[in-house]
Design goal:
Length: 146
């Protein structure tokens, strides 16, 4: 009479070993360092205000000139009676309804360099100044597991 014993065949052992190897290879690994994304935006806030509110409603035309390229970026804003003034951000996002742009429609960008600006009301310069954007560098520190 024959006694039945489990047979350990080589093919069965290889299948099990292959499955274990696949589980080890495709197992999720723990992160060895923290991952960070970095974003740096440079901008300048420009503003004008009719201090005593004598004008009523008016149009403020902001003009920014890149001193290195000579490009002129313009943004006109309507100021309602009683509002007196407004602040704008240079460069403004091109996705906004009103943004700083050249005559050809090119949107302003915060390129490193020197700029001058002025605000005109009724075709006359009422305020102005200058500013600069410096080179921006981002440092990312790699944090390891302790």
């Amino acid at each position: 009479m024959r006694v039945s014993t489990p047979a350990f065949s080589l093919s069965r052992v290889l299948r099990v070993a292959g499955l274990l190897l696949a589980l080890v290879v495709f197992a999720p690994t723990t992160s060895k360092a923290q991952t960070w994304l970095v974003s740096t935006d440079a901008y300048v806030k420009l503003g004008v205000m009719d201090k005593f509110g004598q004008l009523g409603a008016y149009t403020a035309k902001f003009v920014v000139i890149n001193q290195e390229t000579g490009k002129e970026y313009v943004l006109a804003k309507q100021i309602a009676k009683g509002q007196n003034g407004i602040d704008v951000i240079f460069p403004s996002e091109a996705s906004e309804a009103d943004y700083f742009k050249t005559e050809t429609g090119e949107a302003a960008r915060a390129k490193p360099g020197r700029y001058t600006w002025e605000c005109q009301v009724a075709g006359k310069k009422v305020v102005g100044g200058r500013f600069s954007f410096s080179e921006v560098a981002n440092d990312v520190t790699l944090l390891g597991k302790n």
